[in-house]
Amino acid sequence: MSDLDLLTQSLARNVKRWRSERGFTLDALAARAGVSRGMVIQIEQARTNPSLGTVVKIGDALGVSITTLLDHVQGPVVRIVPAERAVRLWHTDAGSYNRLLAGAEAPGPLEMWDWRLMPGESSSSDPHPAGTVELVHVTAGELTLTVGGVGHRVPAGASASFDAGTAHTYGNDGDVPMEMVMAVSVPPVG
Fold first, then answer.
1. What 8-state DSSP symbol labels residue 176?
2. Does the reported pTM lie above 0.70?
């Protein structure tokens, strides 16, 4: 079984499990996530490889992290993720990417990401659920962080935190690659 097949099967099983635990119907999850009922069915039947945005929306609607949705083994209290097992969920031909390094439920989803943006590239995010907080630490280059339409420059060595309940964009307006580590904390579903 390929890594993609393993992720697709894990996503199917975990979406179904968490939807059931939350008591959500297919229609309720679709409405909460802002995706079609058909997409939820395809995901739960492992018949599609959804976009990162769709997986994020479903995780947010269920109140669980992407790591939890993609986890194929419920591990021990300490979970070590070898570098080669970090999940790359987005990339461009120019070399930009993000990798989900680790995640936990504490008490809501908590995720740690590794990002690289090549010069001139950007990645936009829809608003996350109210109360979601993101922390970024730039390790190389300079991040242009746009939150609510306002741009902020975050140079190498600097960190930023913000309320991710509004649309936001990570951009690289410089001429060298930008690298950062990001943590995302989503409040639990009430």
1. S
2. no
Looking at residue 187, its amino acid is P
Residue ranges of the alpha helices (H) in 46-181? 52-62, 66-70
- pLDDT of amino acid 104: 64
Tokens encoding 3: 């890594």
Q: Which two tokens stand for residue 86?
A: 């970090």
Q: What angle do CA 44, 37, 167 make, to 5 degrees?
A: 100
* pLDDT block averages, 10 residues each, the chain of length 190: 81 91 92 96 92 91 86 54 76 90 70 94 91 90 93 91 90 97 84
